[in-house]
Structures are given as structure tokens and as C-alpha cells.
Write a structure and sequence with these properties.
With 287 residues, the protein is α/β, with parallel strands linked by helices. It contains nine helices and nine strands. It has one domain: Rossmann fold (3-Layer(aba) Sandwich), CATH 3.40.50. Strand 6, helix 5 and strand 7 form a beta-alpha-beta unit. Helix 1 runs parallel beside helix 2 and helix 1 crosses helix 7. The structure holds nicotinamide-adenine-dinucleotide.
């Protein structure tokens, strides 16, 4: 697609996607390549990001694929400069890389909590700070940070994940306010997906005594409602409209509403739901 025929606003733009080797990141990459965007794709898993790059190259766009662990701050700062040098500019970053962990506060270790915060929150901070000067310099920048439905409501067994996704939301919403005040040419969008059929639950770790595989099966069966392509399309539509918040899935919209009209009641509802769905069993209980 050339710039003249582009009514979507993505053709010819340079977009950066983390966690592009799987799930939502891969679907975003393929969709955005189809819209004519040049892509800097990265993932901690080098093989998977190469597969995504091969899927995108068919669209005739420029693709740069790299191994990047977003928790590595110095490497992330250097990566931002590499991407800028490679493409000459950077317009949008999709901070999508993330991990999940199951564990109750009573039983999970400090290390487990820190790891989730490192990837899901500090990864977003590292990427945002590394790329922000380049996005401002582009004159038409956009930061898209992927939080979660669990950045809107809490759920038993997800304290570390909840904390990381609420933190991502707070960081992102504040960034948006600051850029509105500074009038820098960068838009900001926070994404809150509901249950998406990806590898996130299967890749998740679990605290000692929990059956990680069983919990993942329960998540996949009962909560993963939407395809990654549906998530990508919803996110792209929100980015095109420069939305502050993008909620993916009816359940994200319904639970967001519940958390706002009944903040205390929504906590009880989440606890009750987890028992009903048996997604976050206590140590020793079968999933
Ligand atoms: N799938 C869902 O139901 C769901 C719901 C809400 C939010 N999310 C969020 O969406 C984002 C994408 O998740 P997904 O569902 O596509 O999962 P996924 O597991 O399919 O993909 C996540 C990708 O991130 C990569 N990754 C993990 N740690 C990394 C690191 N340190 N540095 C760089 N890359 C790393 C993984 O290798 C993987 O390719 C995550 O932030 C996740 O928390 C997912």
C-alpha cells in the first residue's frame, strides 16, 4: 500500500512491537504489515520473532527483527537508537511483551513478584523512556502500552500481575496527561484486553504447590474468548482513533463498568468468579 492510497494512517510509518514472537504481538505485526507499516519487531525468544518477521515480509514492508529482553535497560536504550538509525525515524511503539504468574500473596516468593513487575511494568518504562525522544522527534508519535483487564479489576492469585498491570495503567495515563500539557506531538493509548487465545497462560509460571498446566488449561477453556487477530484489530482501530483507552472484548467492558459503579462489590465478584471458574485454586486443590 502506498502513502497516497492509505486511508488507515499506518502506511510508511515506522512501528516498534515488543513480544512480537507470539499471540497479540504477532497478530499486531501481521495486521500492521498488511496496512503498509515498516516494523521493528523484537522478542526475548529469537526464533519466534524470526517467524513473525517472515510472515510480515510477504507484505513488502521493511522489517527489522531482534532479540530483546525488555527488562535489560541498557540494551533497550541502545535498541531504541539502533531502530532510529536503521529506519531514520520512529512513529509508534507497542509495548506488548508480558508474562503471567499464578500465586497467592501468602505463598509466592519476592522473586516471583519482582520478575512479573520487571517484565510487565519496568519493561514498559524502559521502552517508553528509551523511545520517547525519537517519538517526539518524529512529529507524529504514539505510545501504545498493553495493560490488561487485570489492570482494571483484581483477581485472586494474580497479585503480581494485577500490580504490574495497574502500574502500567497509572504510568500510561499520567504520561498522556503530561504530553497533553507539554503539547509534544505524541499520543498515548492504554490497552486492556480481556481473555485472548494466546500462549500467555501456558507460558505462565506458578508458585510452589500450584498446578501451572492445570490452571493454564482452565484459563484457555473458560476465559480465553477472543482470537489474537480480533485483539489486534481492536487495538489498531483504537490507535487510529487516538483513543486514551482501548478495551478488548465485551467482558473487559462489562467488568470495567462494574469496577467503576461498584468498586468494592467488584472485588467480591472477582473472588466469587475465581471460585466458580476454578482458575486460581489454592495450593493442593485441583484446577
Ligand atoms: N492473552 C490474554 O488473555 C491477555 C489478556 C490481557 C493482557 N494481555 C497482555 O497482552 C500482552 C501480550 O500477551 P499474549 O497474550 O500475546 O502472550 P504471549 O505469551 O502469546 O506473548 C507474549 C510474548 O512476550 C514475550 N516476552 C516475555 N518476556 C519478555 C521479555 N522479558 N522481553 C521481551 N519479550 C518477552 C514472549 O516471548 C512472548 O512472545 C502481554 O502484556 C499480556 O500481559 C494478554
Amino acid at each position: 500500500m502506498n502513502k497516497q492510497s492509505d486511508r488507515t494512517g499506518f502506511a510508511g510509518k515506522v512501528l516498534v512491537i515488543t513480544g512480537a514472537g507470539s499471540g497479540i504481538g504477532r497478530a499486531l505485526a501481521v495486521r500492521l504489515a498488511g496496512l503498509g507499516a515498516d516494523l521493528a519487531l523484537s522478542d526475548i525468544d529469537g526464533d519466534s520473532v524470526e517467524v513473525t518477521a517472515a510472515l510480515c515480509e510477504g507484505a513488502g514492508v521493511r522489517v527489522k527483527a531482534d532479540v530483546l529482553d525488555v527488562t535489560q535497560r541498557e540494551r533497550t536504550l541502545a535498541y531504541a537508537d539502533e531502530v532510529r538509525a536503521h529506519f531514520g525515524t520512529v512513529h509508534q511503539i507497542y509495548n506488548n511483551a508480558g508474562i503471567a504468574h499464578y500465586g497467592e500473596v501468602t505463598h509466592e516468593s519476592f522473586k516471583e513478584i519482582e520478575r512479573v513487575l520487571d517484565v510487565n511494568f519496568w519493561g514498559v518504562v524502559n521502552m517508553t523512556k528509551a523511545f520517547l525522544p525519537h517519538l517526539i522527534a518524529s512529529g507524529d508519535g504514539h505510545v501504545i502500552n498493553v495493560s490488561s483487564l487485570f489492570g482494571l479489576i483484581t483477581y485472586p492469585g494474580q497479585s503480581a500481575y494485577n500490580a504490574s498491570k495497574f502500574a502500567t495503567r497509572g504510568f500510561t495515563e499520567c504520561l498522556r496527561q503530561e504530553l497533553l500539557l507539554s503539547r509534544d506531538p505524541v499520543h498515548v493509548t492504554c490497552v486492556h484486553p480481556g481473555g485472548i487465545k494466546t500462549a500467555v497462560a501456558r507460558n505462565a509460571t506458578a508458585s510452589q504447590g500450584l498446578d501451572a498446566a492445570g490452571i493454564a488449561r482452565a484459563f484457555d477453556r473458560r476465559l480465553a474468548l477472543h482470537s489474537p487477530e480480533m485483539a489486534a484489530d481492536t487495538i489498531i482501530s483504537g490507535v487510529r482513533r487516538r483513543r486514551a483507552r482501548v478495551l478488548v472484548g465485551a467482558e473487559a467492558k462489562a467488568l470495567d463498568l462494574l469496577s467503576r459503579i461498584a468498586p468494592s462489590g467488584s472485588q467480591r465478584f472477582g473472588a466469587w468468579m475465581s471460585r466458580l471458574l476454578r482458575i486460581a485454586p489454592r495450593p493442593g486443590a485441583a484446577a
